[in-house]
Design goal:
Its main location: cytoplasm. The protein has a domain of about 100 residues: Tubulin/FtsZ, C-terminal domain (60s Ribosomal Protein L30, Chain: A). It is about 40% helix and about 20% strand. The chain binds guanosine-5'-triphosphate (GTP). The site of guanosine-5'-triphosphate has 23 residues, from helix 2, helix 7 and helix 10.
């Protein structure tokens, strides 16, 4: 009989990563990932819109809720999006089975992404995957209904994902050429998501000067967090490390209201070409810790990617307002409810990729106390997500709840 321990030691386990794009925006994001020839992760597109799926170059696609929507999209109805996902819960289960790290990409504010993404996240979490969602938030000009839907969706996702990274589409107005098409602007926004996924992929797969493993990532994201902090910076040539730190500090994603300013748990990933040295990584760590998480529990990884030449890239992912509740407890309670939901068959065309062998996964311990988290409710009909018993902050005719860079029309150079 073979010794299971020695088997484990001789064969390092591969981390299985998957990106699931949900709804129109999510599918666009995985399409772009595919077109950029990123081969490190499996890509899947999930949508209620059959026509849009048919036009996608992605091989693994799942058309959900055809019996509810006729394959024509959710019509902006979140309940329809959620129902559509529940109708294909078995296919979703199979899709996330054996995945260690699941990235969900979606645009919030419509029906499919907002309704279906939390269902997918919940199933993945139940199966033991670590789930990180990147979600585009609608433009302010899309106004009240979409913004409220998006805020609601953001709350639901925060309940069902280990980390949620919101990317406000308003930033696109700042960074795009006034003559750029909407598609070009979306492509720019989606490039952030691609960079983030690449960085996390490198962290898990490339040779490290300072290795960060999946167990550490899981440990860092194992508690329910209120807000996420996420940013990217890069530098090239002489002084690349210092330039990357300066670039990170200017990252517009770190200056939006959706993000926390400081982290309780901070993950810093440095990817550099062959020239990056220990002194560079130490300088980056000190600067980043001081700026974003002086009192944080900082986890660091530094890897060499020779393709980067003389460049250095930094990716930070932090969580704040972390509760003492381990994540799995919350989800298992919610999971009991969804078991009663209807199941459905999958069409040949919609079947996910064949199952690969399951890697072993670390055990996550659950707390003995039930999960509790109070939530404030947002007032109806307001695009900015005010709390029920408060009014907007208007000062000298200016709406202070709008980000300063938008009120003043400041252009952020990326
Ligand atoms: N970053 C980015 N945002 C997008 C893209 N397409 C749409 N969005 C944004 O995402 C929000 C949701 O739109 P969709 O993803 O098309 O909606 P959906 O989830 O498919 O929902 P339904 O169309 O109602 O079924 C919109 O309000 C846009 O602000 C995209 O390609 N990239």
């Amino acid at each position: 009989m073979s010794d299971p321990l020695s088997d484990e030691q001789s064969e390092p386990t591969e981390i299985r990563m998957k990106v699931v794009g949900v709804g129109g925006a999510g599918s666009n994001i995985v399409d772009r990932l595919m077109l950029s020839q990123f081969s490190g992760v499996e890509l899947v597109a999930v949508n209620t819109d059959q026509q849009a799926l048919a036009n996608s170059p992605i091989v693994n696609k799942l058309c959900i809720g055809k019996s509810v929507t006729g394959g024509l999209g959710s019509g902006g109805d979140v309940e329809v999006g959620r129902e559509a996902a529940l109708k294909h819960i078995d296919a979703i289960d199979e899709m996330v089975s054996g995945v260690d790290l699941l990235f969900i990409a979606a645009g919030l504010g419509g029906g499919t992404g907002t309704g279906a993404a939390p269902v997918i996240a919940e199933q993945a979490l139940r199966q033991g995957a670590l789930v990180i969602a990147f979600v585009a938030l609608p433009f302010t000009i899309e106004r009240s209904a979409r913004a409220n839907t998006a805020l609601d969706g953001l709350r639901r996702l925060r309940d069902t994902c280990n980390a949620v990274v919101p990317l406000p589409n308003d930033l696109l107005i700042q960074e795009s050429d006034p003559d750029a098409s909407l598609l070009d602007a979306f492509a720019k926004a989606d490039a952030w998501i691609e960079k983030a996924i690449r960085s996390i992929w490198c962290m898990m797969n490339k040779t490290g000067m300072i290795n960060l493993d999946f167990a550490q990532l899981r440990q860092m994201l194992s508690k329910k967090a209120g807000k996420t902090l996420f940013g990217l910076g890069s530098g090239t040539g002489e002084g690349a490390a210092a330039a990357a730190v300066a670039d990170l500090k200017l990252c517009p994603l770190l200056h939006t209201p959706e993000f926390s300013k400081k982290a309780d748990q901070l993950l810093v990933n440095i990817v550099g070409g062959a020239r990056i040295g220990i002194a560079d990584t130490q300088m980056i760590m000190e600067a980043v810790s001081e700026e974003f998480g002086a009192d944080a529990n900082v986890t660091m990884g530094a890897v060499v990617d020779e393709d980067l030449g003389d460049s250095v890239e930094i990716c930070i992912l932090g969580t704040s307002e972390v509760s003492s509740v381990p994540f799995t407890k919350v989800v298992k309670q919610r999971a009991k409810k969804s078991k009663a939901e209807p199941k459905s068959e999958v069409t040949e065309e919609a079947k996910p990729a064949p199952k690969k062998s399951k890697p072993s996964r670390p055990v996550v311990h659950e707390s003995s106390k039930p999960a509790e988290q109070e939530e404030f409710s947002f007032s109806e009909g307001d695009p900015k997500g005010e709390f029920e018993n408060s009014s907007g902050t208007i000062f000298e005719g200016q709406d202070l709840d709008s980000p300063t860079y938008l009120r003043r029309g400041v252009k952020i150079v990326l």
